[in-house]
Amino acid sequence: MRAAVVHSFDAPPRYGIVATPEPRGEHEILVDVLAAGLHPRVRSGADGSHYTSDGVLPLVPGVDAVGRTPQGELLYFVAPDGATGTMAERAVVDRRRAVALPAGTDPVAVAAAMNPAMSSWLALRRRVPLRPGASVLVLGATGSAGRLAVRIAKHLGAAHVVAAGRDPERLALLPGLGADETVPLLDDPEKTADHLGRAAGDVDIVLDYVWGPATEHALPAVLTARTERAEPLAWVQIGSVAGPDITLPSAYLRGANLQLIGSGQGSVTTAGILAELPSLADLINSGTLAVDTLPVPLSRVEHAWTAPEAPGQRVVLTPDA
Asked: If you ran DSSP here, which 8-state letter would residue 126 be given?
């Protein structure tokens, strides 16, 4: 079958031929792939930098997709561990890691939105359940996942959402998506810290998509601005677009009621993830969590991988006509 194939962690995937995967267990079936999103998680897996990478090449990238069964059923699925990736003509689906989609669902829309939406949805449903009326800071709100996080926080009952990000044009759009306040992440750490402290000093939850130096400045800015430092603050580490590491002085952990946790692959059980998928799929299918999509034929994967991305747009690989 045809597929996107990674031959080197230093080069984009190329369109090529691989063996068609075979279902192995009673729960596995082979489906035709209709749409597979090119998410940051897919890119990090393809360049070997994701924490789950085993370093084995060649590989077919792709962690999730929408596919059609031989009986015509439409499924959104997360690829089984160790299986061939989803950026191919066909893929193996473990029915225990899939959710049925209603007839008329747009496969491209679901493939584009499920992965980025899942990051904040799982964080606020499974890692730190959001209580109605809570306040949330989305750090890194101008990326696709961050934009969805603003909307999801509001949908789940947040009374106040602060959105912080670097892109001023995208930041200006976030009040229309539910942000009550916006904070530009500037190159000047002191100015950013002052603004962030005033806007988000008393939030209950931080959804952190940036990490690295940006978090090193943001975390003390929020903690030192809190009216009551003994009030719980859950800092949920989701992404690391600004860097994989931070230096965290121990005094911040002792001087505030800070809960520092992660949300990602491995921190939520497969059963827990699957339990959340139907509700999330319904929101996407209804248009509540719409994402700007760019469908690209699978044969154009190398171009799609290297082409500049439009703000807020998600590339989705689809079958060739």
From this structure: I
For residue 223, the SS3 value is: helix
Closest CA to 266 of 127, 66, 116, 98: 127
Residue with tokens 């890692």: 127
The amino acid present at 236, given as its one-letter code, is V
Q: How far apart are CA 75 and CA 99, in angstroms?
A: 6
The neighbouring-strand residues paired with 15 are: 4
Coil, strand or helix: which one is 178? coil
Q: Which two tokens stand for residue 143?
A: 């990326």
Question: What is the pLDDT confidence band of residue 91, given thresholds at 50, 70 and 90?
Answer: very high
Cα 178-289-297 angle, rounded to 5 deg: 135
How far apart, in whole angstroms, are the C-alpha atoms of residue 134 and residue 139? 16
Query: Alpha helix (H) ranges present in 20-97?
Result: 40-46
Per-residue pLDDT tens digits for 175-200: 999 999 999 998 887 788 889 999 99
Residue 274 is predicted with a pLDDT of 86
pLDDT in tens, 28-60: 999 999 999 999 889 998 998 887 787 789 999
Cα torsion angle, 168, 169, 172, 177, sign? negative
* Closest C-alpha among 316, 206, 191 to residue 261: 206
